[in-house]
Each structure stands twice: as C-alpha cells, then as structure tokens.
Amino acid sequence: MSKKTAIVTGAAMGYKDGGPSIGGAIALRLAKDGYNVVVVDLGEMGQKTVELIEAGGGHAVFIQADVTKTADIGRIIQTTKDMYGGLHCLVNTVARYGSGMMKNVAEISEEEWNATLEVNLNGYFKMAKYTIPLLLESGGGTIVNISSIESFVALPNFSVYSVSKAAIDALTRSIAVDFAPQIRANAVLPGFVKIANSENNRSPEELQKWHGDIALGYPMKRVCEPDEIAHVVSFLAGAESSYINGQSIVVDGGRMICDGHVF
C-alpha cells in the first residue's frame, strides 16, 4: 500500500446541486491529507465528491450503498481491499432526517423510531463491526463517528435524533476501550452546520436571514462551515491525536456553554 485509505460514509455532496455537506468536506480533507478515499452514500452525488477529489489530484472511488445492509457493507469492504489493499480510517457520517422524526416520544411512530435508529445507530455499528477486522489486518487505525450536540442537549420534539446521537457516543467509547491500542475511536459533535441539504427551498435572501437568526444563539455569531468539522476529523484521524481515544469532541462555537439570557 503506497498510502493510507479511508472509508467515509454519507460522503455525497449536497443532493440538490453538489453543494456543501459534512461527509463531502471530510472526504475532500482526507484526500488532501493523502488518503485514498472510499466515498460511500446512497445518493448519486457521491460521484461528485470523487470528481472533486480527483480534480485536486487525489484518489477516490464511489460506492453507492446502504450501510444498513450487511451485503452492501461486504461490497464496500471487498472493493476497498481490491483497490487499495487495506484500511486505516473509517468515518461514519451518514444520518437520517425526515419530518416524521420531528416528534416527541409519545407522538413518534414506532416505524419512524426504528427506521431512524437503523440508520443513525445500526449503520454505524455495522460499518464498525465489519471494517474493524480489516483495520486490524492493516496494522490498526482510527474510527471517527459524527454525532451531534443533541446527544447532550435535547432539541424539542426531536426525540429519536437525540437518542441516536447519544447512542453513537456510547458506541464510540465501547470501541475505544475494546480495540485500543490498535484502533482509536472518537466522536465529533457538531452544532448547526451550513449544508446544502438543510436549505430546503429557501431563497438566498431567506437563507442569509435564517443563518443569521441561528447565529444569534452561538457565541461565535456565525454558523459552522463543513470544512470546520472536516479539520477536526483530520486531526482525530492522524498521528497528532495519538493519545486521544474514546472522546466526544464538541465543535459548536461555544453553543453548549452559552446561557442565552439577556439582562
């Protein structure tokens, strides 16, 4: 293997026109760091991520796959081995969003609850379960799971999302304890991030106002860019974070520590 290889799930660019996404930004950053990148997503915009990586001189392949399906994960792992020989980093970014999950525990349907956990938790579990042997075979490596500050603070009427993110943090700690020192595992917990998939049909003027209103609750007085999450993932994936293991790293511009009262 001439260089390291990373798998990034949920790594498609924004579904509308290839706009910014957290997974896409992470894939681009790891490619810049010198990794071969296996871009995994259900959406066809994963190919756009590969094109951007290759335009920057990097190496990547897109695998259109469902991380809740064991057969698809087997295909991801086999393609990674065939193309690059091994694996050194797994970044789980995929997440499920939908209007049906925006309910409290009394109102959400069992179907919506289970469907969300199947992606947001079980997808992470299955990717870790089936890639860890390849990571160990390759000499060890890192796992970075994208969680959320909602694992610590509850967004009203968004129950299953908060539960899924808290479970990701616990899964990360379990992996960190069980597989150190060969594998380090950490979670990154963003606050609001400016991504294309949250824009809906807002006009540029509406987006500016929306982002501005959200920024008022953040000490930094602006919203996070996807690259700012990718920088942290790059650090956790690399040797400079060699003694950081099992941590939940909050990247929210100080939102969680901010008492918003005005006197």
Automatic annotation (TrEMBL):
Which PROSITE patterns does the record associate with it? ADH_SHORT
Pfam families linked to this entry: adh_short_C2
The record's listing under InterPro entries reads:
NAD(P)-bd_dom_sf, Sc_DH/Rdtase_CS, SDR_fam
User: Mind telling me which CDD domains this protein's record contains?
Assistant: SDR_c
Establish whether keyword Oxidoreductase is in the entry. Answer: yes
Segments crossing the lipid bilayer: none
List the molecular function annotations (GO) for this entry.
oxidoreductase activity
Keywords on this record? Oxidoreductase
- The domain of life for this entry's organism is Bacteria
Q: Which family does it belong to?
A: Belongs to the short-chain dehydrogenases/reductases (SDR) family.
| UniProt name for this protein | Short-chain dehydrogenase/reductase SDR
